[in-house]
Amino acid sequence: MPHYDLPLPELETYAPPRHEPADFAEFWAKTLAGAREHDLDVTGRPAAAYLRTVAVRDVSFAGFGDHRIGAWHLRPREASGDVPTVVQFLGYGDGRGTPVDWLMWPAAGFAVLVVDTRGQGARARRAGLTGDPGGSDNAHVEGFLTKGVLDPDDYYYRRVYTDGVRAVEAARTLPGTDAGHVAVAGTSQGGAIALGVSGLAPELVDAAIVHVPFLCDVRRAVTIADRAPYAELLAFLRTHRGAAEQALRTIDHVDGTTLAAHATAPALFSVALMDQICPPSGVYAAYHHYAGPKSLDVYPYNDHEGGAADADIASVQWLQELWS
Hints:
Elements: H1 8-11, H2 24-36, E1 43-47, E2 54-62, E3 68-76, E4 83-88, H3 104-107, E5 111-115, H4 156-173, E6 177-187, H5 189-200, E7 207-211, H6 218-224, H7 230-239, H8 244-252, H9 256-260, E8 267-272, H10 280-289, E9 294-299, H11 308-322
């Protein structure tokens, strides 16, 4: 796939106007306050005893609407004292899988909380066990991007981003967490959630790792990306012509370009210039609006896989250097 988005010199300065809703601050303040009316109720039990050098717990906590959200908590078994912790969010359709999938962070000396995305984990490589009891039964295109898209209060990603904030709150309560060193991390949808949490609760996030993030500059992305998940939104807009602007106004509440402007933690971004799923212009838009210290790794010849293992290595090294 050749480069199809803006030329690189234009991307390097691309910072489109944000479509920040007038009620953005009030909307999210009320949403998070509502979630915090419920006790976090973090529970856990030992798991994966076969991993002799990694201590694993099967954790759950109360997310949006007091719904239970599942997660794995892994930390180096022989670590003395508190350790830096990464809250790991997942790509579209993925679930937390098994502890074996998440050994990189504890092998590098970090704890990690791997958080299920509600309703997902049934059609990607890893299974999930967390349902989505919330939301209406209004029509939507198969998938998650258009669930409740005509009403910000009903929108699927309102629940997901709230779960993300609660996940960071939960991570901070877990034994062995260094409360001064808590990072959020993710790729694609996971990058969108990490970015969202960084903007919604900057006081909770000490670092952010945001690889090829989804849900950034969505109004442009849906006009140039025809692969899923944006294809879901495009199909909805085609068939709900009179409600198109209403749907886009809902998504404005979760767009990474706006959330980035409210984030303050040091951040590592990455972008792939041949990415047909999350257009490069969206990543650059969020990156340029990001209000905290930041750096960007560019992969000129990659599609949505981005830097793959190289991005993983860069993430570990960046966080080790940041917190050394």
